[in-house]
C-alpha cells in the first residue's frame, strides 16, 4: 500500500519467513540462545547450499527470512533435520521434498564466503518486550524515538574496527507480540513499568557486520558470526537490516566475542 517514492528502496526479491521450533520446548538456562541455538542445524547448512538469509531475532523467538525462489533448496536442505510445515488458511500442513521437487537442482559446492569486517561500538543495548495493551501509553514516545530523535547517520570508514556509539532502534510487531531493541540511554525515556525484560536485566553489546552495505545475494554472512559463537556457547540476538547485519551479545562477553571473530577472520585469509 505504500506509494512509490524516490526516497524508498525496495529489494527485488520476495521473502518467506521460517520459524524454528524445538518441539515446543524452551532451551535450558545453561544453553546458548538466539541465533547460536540454530547455527549448526539451520544457518550453516543453508549457507553451504548457497541460500542467502535475513535473520530477525526478537524478544520471543528467532525468524529466518529466505527468498521465495530458494524455497525448494531450503526444504531439501532442512528436511533431514526438521519436520517442515506451511501455513494454509490458518492451518499447519506438512511439507515434503516431493512437494517442491519441481525445478530443484542439486547445489554446487559452496565457495569460501567473504569474511566481512566487524565493528564493536561502545553503546549498551537492552532487549525488551511490551504488552500490546500497554502500547498506547508509550505510543507518542515511540514515534518520537523512531522518527524524530536521531540525526542523519554518520558513515563509518570501511576500515574502521570500532565506534564510540551507534544509533540503533529496532521495533518488531509479529503476531501481536512486540519486541524492541534500544540503547540503555533511550530506555530511560520510557516508563520502566511498561517495558518487560528478562529477570537478569542483562545489557548487550553490538557487533555490526560489514564495512559497506552487504546486499542480499551473498551467502554465509550470518554463519560468519553464528558458527564461532555457537562453538563457544555464547548467546546472540541477530538482526539483519537493508544495509548491515547486527549481532547483540551479552555485555560481559564482548571481549571474548571480538577475539573469536578476529581469529575467524585471520584463519580465513
Short description:
22% of the residues lie in helices and 23% in strands.
Largest sheet: 7 strands, antiparallel
What is the succession of H and E elements? Answer: EHEEHEEEEHEEHEHEEH
- Number of structural units classed as domains: 1
Strand content is 15-25%
The CATH topology annotation reads as VC0802-like
What's the name of the CATH homologous superfamily?
Answer: VC0802-like
- Total helices: the number is 6
Envelope shape = globular
CATH architecture group name: 2-Layer Sandwich
* Multimer state: single chain
> What is the terminal-to-terminal distance?
46 Å
Low-confidence stretches: 26-30, 156-162
E-strand count: 12
Radius of gyration: 19 Å
In CATH's first tier, which class applies? Alpha Beta
GO biological process, one term: negative regulation of TORC1 signaling
Domain Cytosolic arginine sensor for mTORC1 subunit 1/2 ACT-like: 116-199
Protein name: Cytosolic arginine sensor for mTORC1 subunit 1
Subcellular location: Cytoplasm, Cytosol
Describe this structure in words.
It is a single chain. The chain is an alpha+beta fold and 269 residues long. The chain has one domain: VC0802-like. The chain is built from six helices and twelve strands. Strands 6, 7, 8, 9, 10, 11 and 12 form a seven-stranded antiparallel β-sheet that branches. The protein has a three-stranded antiparallel β-sheet with strand order 1-3-2, covered by helices on one side. The chain has a two-stranded antiparallel ribbon with strand order 4-5. Strand 2 and strand 3 form a beta hairpin. It is found in: Cytoplasm, Cytosol.
Amino acid at each position: 500500500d505504500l506509494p512509490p517514492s524516490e526516497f524508498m528502496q525496495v529489494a527485488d526479491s520476495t521473502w518467506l519467513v521460517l520459524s524454528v521450533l524445538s518441539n515446543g520446548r524452551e532451551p535450558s538456562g545453561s544453553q546458548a540462545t538466539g541465533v547460536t541455538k540454530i547455527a549448526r542445524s539451520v544457518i550453516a547448512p543453508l549457507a553451504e547450499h548457497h541460500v542467502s538469509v535475513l535473520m530477525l531475532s526478537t524478544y520471543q523467538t528467532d525468524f529466518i527470512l529466505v527468498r521465495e525462489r530458494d524455497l525448494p533448496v531450503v526444504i531439501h536442505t532442512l528436511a533431514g533435520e526438521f519436520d517442515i510445515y506451511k501455513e494454509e488458511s490458518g492451518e499447519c500442513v506438512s511439507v515434503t521434498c516431493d512437494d517442491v521437487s519441481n525445478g530443484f537442482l542439486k547445489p554446487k559446492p559452496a565457495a569460501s564466503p567473504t569474511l566481512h569486517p566487524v565493528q564493536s561500538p561502545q553503546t549498551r543495548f537492552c532487549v525488551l518486550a511490551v504488552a500490546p495493551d500497554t502500547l498506547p501509553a508509550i505510543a507518542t514516545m515511540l514515534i518520537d524515538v523512531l522518527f524524530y530523535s536521531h540525526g542523519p547517520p554518520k558513515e563509518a570508514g570501511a576500515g574502521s574496527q570500532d565506534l564510540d556509539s551507534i544509533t540503533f532502534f529496532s521495533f518488531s510487531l509479529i503476531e501481536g507480540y512486540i519486541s524492541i531493541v534500544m540503547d540503555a540511554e533511550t530506555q530511560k525515556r520510557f516508563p520502566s513499568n511498561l517495558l518487560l525484560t528478562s529477570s537478569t536485566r542483562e545489557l548487550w553489546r553490538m557487533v555490526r557486520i560489514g564495512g559497506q552495505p552487504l546486499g542480499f545475494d551473498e551467502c554465509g554472512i550470518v554463519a560468519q558470526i553464528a558458527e564461532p559463537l555457537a562453538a563457544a556457547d555464547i548467546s546472540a540476538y541477530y538482526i539483519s537490516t537493508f544495509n548491515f547485519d547486527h549481532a547483540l551479545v551479552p555485555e560481559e562477553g564482548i571481549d571474548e566475542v571480538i577475539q573469536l571473530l578476529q581469529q575467524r577472520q585471520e584463519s580465513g585469509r
